[in-house]
Amino acid sequence: MSAQNIPDRTRWNGWVALAWILALLAIVGGIAVIATAGFIEVPRLNSVGQTETSTEPNVFIWAIAIGQAVSATMLAAIFSMINSIYQNTCDQLVGMDLSKPDAEQPNTLKNSALRLTSVPATSSLSKTLSTGDMIITFNGQPVTSLENDVVDRIVTGENSITFLTLEGEEKTDTLFLNRTSFHGIQGEADQLRSYKNTDDGLKIVSIHSASQLEGMLHPNYVLLSINDQLALSEMDAAKAVVNGENKIEFINSKGAHRVNFRNMKPGPLHIQFEK
User: Would you place residue 195 in the very low, low, confident or very high pLDDT band (cuts 50, 70, 90)?
Assistant: First the structure.
C-alpha cells in the first residue's frame, strides 16, 4: 500500500485525550460539589421536645456528581477502545502490500496452470505424468504454456516440476530432461481452482462483528476463494478483495459448497482462521 493511502493511526488521539481530560474534570468537579453541597442540616426533635439539627448526605447532589463522573469516564473509555481498534486496523493495513503488481493481474492468469490433454503411453514421462494432470510450476516458474513455460525452460541436468494429479494430490518431482522429453505431450491453460480438493481452504475459528463477511461466514465454515483466488493464507484472502462486488466461495458447516457475492472494500478480513 502506498504511503499516501495509509490511514493516519494518530488521527483521533487528540479527541481521546480531550475525553479523558473532561472525565478528570468531571471527577474533580463531582468531588468539589460533594464537598461544598453534599451535606445538609436537617432539623429534628429530640427526646425532650427540643429542635436539633443533624448533618445528612444530600442524595440528589451525590447522585448528580457520581453520575456525571461515571458517565464521563465511560465515554472516555469507549473513545479509547474505538481508537485502539482503529489503530490496530491501521497497523494491519500497513503490514499488507496491497499494491503488488501481481495483485493487478487478471484472476484467470493468477490461478491458471497447464492441463495435460494428452500424454501418450510411449512418452518417457508417462510414468510420471498422466492425461488430466495440471502442471503448476516448472523450475520454480508458473506454467500456462507447454512450449514457452516448459520446453523453453528445460535446463541440462535436474529440472523441478510441480503438478496436481486428477485425485487432487500435489507432487513435486526432479527429472532429467531434454527438449524432446515432452514430444507428443499436449496441454492447454486451465483454471487451477477446479482441480483443487474441496477440502483446501481456511477453516474459520471465529469472525469479528467488524468483518465485512459477518453474516455470510460463520465458525466451522471453510473459506475456499475470493474472486476465484485461492484462500491459501489469511494474507492471500485479504489481498484478493476488491472495491465493489466480490465473489466468495466457501463450504458451510454442513459440507455444502456455496458461492455468494458481497460488496466490500480492501482491508483486513477480521476473521480468525485455524492454524
Answer: very low
Average pLDDT of 167-191?
A: 85
CATH number for the domain formed by residue range(s) 198-273: 2.30.42.10
3-class SS of residue 143: coil
pLDDT level of residue 40 (50, 70, 90 thresholds): confident
With cell 473532561, the residue in question is: 22
Q: What is the Cα–Cα distance from 201 to 190, expressed in whole angstroms? A: 20
CATH number of 112-191: 2.30.42.10
Q: In terms of Cα–Cα distance, which of 163, 197, 186, 189 is closest to 108?
A: 189
Q: Which residues contact 178 (CB under 8 A, 6 or more apart)?
A: 154
Can you give the pTM of this predicted structure? 0.36
Report the pLDDT value the prediction gives residue 108, as an integer from 0 to 100.
Answer: 45
**Which pLDDT band holds residue 123 (cuts at 50, 70, 90)?**
confident
201 Cβ contact list (under 8 Å, min separation 6): 222, 223, 224, 225, 230, 231, 250, 251
112-191 matches 198-273 in fold: yes
Number of helices and strands in the chain (H, E): 5, 14
What is the residue extent of each domain of the chain? 3-95, 112-191, 198-273
